[in-house]
Amino acid sequence: MDGEYRTLSGQGIESNILFFGQENCQPNYIFKGNNVRDNYVIHYVQKGKGIFSSANHPVTQLKAGDIFILPKDVPCFYQADSEDPWSYFWIGLSGTRISSIFQNSLLSQKNYLRQMQDSKFKDYLFQLFDAIHLPSSLANDLLIESLLYHTFYYLLTEYPNPKSKNTDTSKNDLKLAVIYLENNFRDSSCNITDLCQKLNISRSYLYSLFKKNLALSPQQFLIKIRMEEAKQLLKTKDEPIKKIAGEVGYSDEFTFSKAFKRYNGLSPKNFRM
């Protein structure tokens, strides 16, 4: 059996990567260490298959593309298949927010998720695993921190736990929606319908959250972000208006100019003068 195991020395309060590694398992391989962890360990199955179970949950078979987690203080068992043993990588996590993040995701229900290949969560998890192999430096530490929070963000938006909806979750839904729009408004395909699908919430619910807390509809908020960014670009960059339109999420200059004048009372050209 070949693999790797490494630890990281950096310590964070809210979230921290303690260790990471990967394993190409032999047939029927069973982890022989402590099956009750004092941290959280997330595994991604890269190929092959095996079985997994955790306390109060039945044994299930997992395969390439699936994810499972060893939660803190929860007994778990996992074993490679006898004919097609799995290979996986893992990341060990701790911190004050880790428990809350996993509890608010679907991972908390059965401690595994199936077929993650096409998710942004999986994409950022892979990027994170690559980044933690880089030499330690301030720039790389910041990269790892950024990728870690992006990974958590997509875990919560793509795989939210529907049972966690409450008053605090309403505030969290609003926060996640705002973060999503602020991160994606430059993409012309960014829209409220897709946002609702990613958060697994209804459009009417999202509308009420925005109106109650921000006095704007979600669409008005998206327009505001785009227009405020456009104003800054028009003031600070000597770029064609068509290019600026594309940088704030508009696929054509005419539509952008109409929206800008409606928002500011001036056309982009006159605003620049």
UniProtKB/TrEMBL annotation:
<keyword id="KW-0805">Transcription regulation</keyword>
<dbReference type="InterPro" id="IPR018060">
    <property type="entry name" value="HTH_AraC"/>
</dbReference>
<dbReference type="Pfam" id="PF02311">
    <property type="entry name" value="AraC_binding"/>
</dbReference>
<dbReference type="InterPro" id="IPR037923">
    <property type="entry name" value="HTH-like"/>
</dbReference>
<dbReference type="InterPro" id="IPR009057">
    <property type="entry name" value="Homeodomain-like_sf"/>
</dbReference>
<dbReference type="GO" id="GO:0043565">
    <property type="term" value="F:sequence-specific DNA binding"/>
</dbReference>
<keyword id="KW-0804">Transcription</keyword>
<dbReference type="InterPro" id="IPR003313">
    <property type="entry name" value="AraC-bd"/>
</dbReference>
<dbReference type="GO" id="GO:0003700">
    <property type="term" value="F:DNA-binding transcription factor activity"/>
</dbReference>
<dbReference type="Pfam" id="PF12833">
    <property type="entry name" value="HTH_18"/>
</dbReference>
<protein>
    <submittedName>
        <fullName>Raffinose operon transcriptional regulator</fullName>
    </submittedName>
</protein>
<keyword id="KW-0238">DNA-binding</keyword>
<feature type="domain" description="HTH araC/xylS-type">
    <location>
        <begin position="175"/>
        <end position="273"/>
    </location>
</feature>
<dbReference type="InterPro" id="IPR020449">
    <property type="entry name" value="Tscrpt_reg_AraC-type_HTH"/>
</dbReference>
